[in-house]
């Protein structure tokens, strides 16, 4: 059974719609932009939106970092956009009375046209002030292990925690009978030996395959 990223994202952003409406109430100029056409990306009437599908950028960032995804303008997308997603865009265009722009897509890096050339894309529309409207999600579910496997690649601290945790676990699982009379001291020495060896292997092979961390890549249109 896979993980539905749309469900994960909507759970994390459950209160974003209310926060967005509160921001609109304080910013009358922005409300007027949404209610009347404006040049940058057209006008999406408030009545055309489902409040539960309004998301803040911080939740998109956390999802992309957790699952090592990209959040880029739709024009960089190299995959096929299905009829259902196109229909959803057309419905929003019809509600706005003109063609909207400002669409973005969340998907793995392999689905974008990057500077160099499990897929579960989501189409979003920029509403301003770091809020986005989730238009449509297509594809299957991601492997539930993806979040765990990508944890070391989120940031340098997460990689450091992963290496230390792995070494501590291996050192703790070694039977005392193998360690001799001074098992506690030998276990500590073994832990630091593992830490040194694993850190060296991570630096040598890990960084050669994944040259940057997810927290730096989630909005980058360049390859790793």
Structure explained in plain terms:
The two termini are 29 Å apart. The chain has a 5-stranded antiparallel sheet with strand order 1-5-4-3-2. With 224 residues, the protein is α+β, with helices and mostly antiparallel strands. The longest helix is centred in the last third of the chain and has 27 residues, at 183-209. Helix 7 packs antiparallel against helix 8. The protein is 47% helix and 12% strand. It folds into 2 domains: 5-137, no CATH class; 150-216, no CATH class.
Low-pLDDT sequence parts:
35-41
- The helix tally amounts to 9
As a percent range, the share of helical residues equals 40-55%
Q: What gyration radius follows from the Cα positions, in whole Å?
A: 23 Å
Strand/helix succession: HHHEHEHEEEHHHH
Features:
five-stranded antiparallel beta sheet, elongated, alpha+beta, 224 residues
Question: What's a quick, concise take on this entry?
Answer:
It is built from nine helices and five strands. With 224 residues, it is of the alpha+beta class. It folds into two domains: 133 residues, no CATH class; 67 residues, no CATH class.
Describe the SSE topology.
Layout: H1 5-12, H2 16-26, H3 28-35, E1 54-56, H4 57-67, E2 70-73, H5 83-96, E3 103-107, E4 122-128, E5 131-137, H6 146-149, H7 156-173, H8 183-209, H9 214-217
Antiparallel strand pairs: 1-5, 2-3, 3-4, 4-5
Helix pairs in contact: 7-8
